[in-house]
Amino acid sequence: MNGTERFWDKATRGPRGVNVVDFDIIPSSTALTIIDMQKYGCCRDIGLGPVYLKETPETAEYWFSRLSEVAVPNIRNLLQFFRKNKLRVIHVCVGPLLPDASDMIPCRRRRDESRLKVSGIDHFFSPGTSEHEIVDELKPNPGEMIFNKNTASAFNSTNIDQILRNMGIESLVITGMATSACVESTARDAADKGYNCILVENACADRYPDSHKMTMINFARAFGQVMTTSEIINHLESKLRSKPGA
C-alpha cells in the first residue's frame, strides 16, 4: 500500500474534523502485540497451507503473498525497532493446550473436526508441534512474553490483561493475522478494557481484502487508531527523541 492511500481516513474524522478516537501514546508504556503469526497459517507447505491452496487457490495465493510481501516484513521492522529501543514485545499464539483439542471452544473444535474429515490434515496444532511455532522471521527473543489462547481474542482465554497491567502497559501496537478475526477480536476487547490501541494496517493480513479494509475502517471509526508501520515508528521515534537526555 502506498503510504498516502489511507483509505480509513474518512472514518477517523468527526463532524468538526477532529479525530473520533484521539489519544497519545508513551513508548515506555507501549507494547508491540503480534498475533498468531504461526507456521500453521503462514506457510504454504505445512499446517493449513496445503488445505488453503487446495480449497481456494486464488484466495490462498493472495493470502500468502500478503503475508510474505507485506505483513511479515513490516512486523519484522516493528520488531527490530521495539527491540532496539528496549520496548515491550508480546507474542500471541492460538491452539489447544491439549493434543485432542478438548479445551478449545466448541465451535472451533467442530469446524476443525469437519475440515479434518475433508482434508485428511490434522487441524489441532498444540504447543510443541512445528505448526504451532511462530514463523522464523518473527521468532521470539528471550524475555519476550508468549501467550497461548484457544479463543479468537487473547483477552478471553489468557491472563494477558492482568500481565499487561502488572507491566504498566497502556497502549498496544497490534499486528498479525487474520485481520478480521483474531486481530480484530483482540483489538476490540483491548479497547473496551481501556487500552489505547493502534492497528498497523500494513502489518496485518486477511484472506479477503474487503474484510481487511472494513476492519480498519470500523476500528478507526469507533475503537482506536490505524497507522502504517512507518507512521507508528516515526511517532515513537519522535517521542523517544523528546525524552530528557535522549
Describe this structure in words.
This protein is an alpha/beta fold. It has a single domain (9-241), classed as 3-Layer(aba) Sandwich (Rossmann fold). The protein is 41% helix and 15% strand. α2 runs antiparallel to α3 (57-84). The chain starts with 29 loop residues before the first strand and ends in a 5-residue tail after the last helix.
Provide the descriptors you would attach to this structure in a database record:
single chain; Rossmann fold; six-stranded parallel beta sheet; alpha/beta; 246 residues
Largest sheet: 6 strands, parallel
The overall number of domains is 1
Q: Describe the global form.
A: globular
CATH class: Alpha Beta
Spell out the helices and strands N to C: EHHHEHEHEHEHEH
- Show unreliable segments: none
Oligomer: single chain
Cα end-to-end separation: 33 Å
CATH architecture: 3-Layer(aba) Sandwich
Mean pLDDT: 90
Count of discrete alpha- or pi-helical segments spanning 4 or more residues:
8
Share in β-strands? 15-25%
Structural class: alpha/beta
Q: What's the total number of strands? A: 6
The name CATH uses for the topology is Rossmann fold
Roughly what percent helix? Answer: 40-55%
Q: Order of strands side by side in the largest beta sheet? A: 3-2-1-4-5-6
Gyration radius from CA atoms, angstroms: 18 Å
CATH superfamily membership, which one? Isochorismatase-like
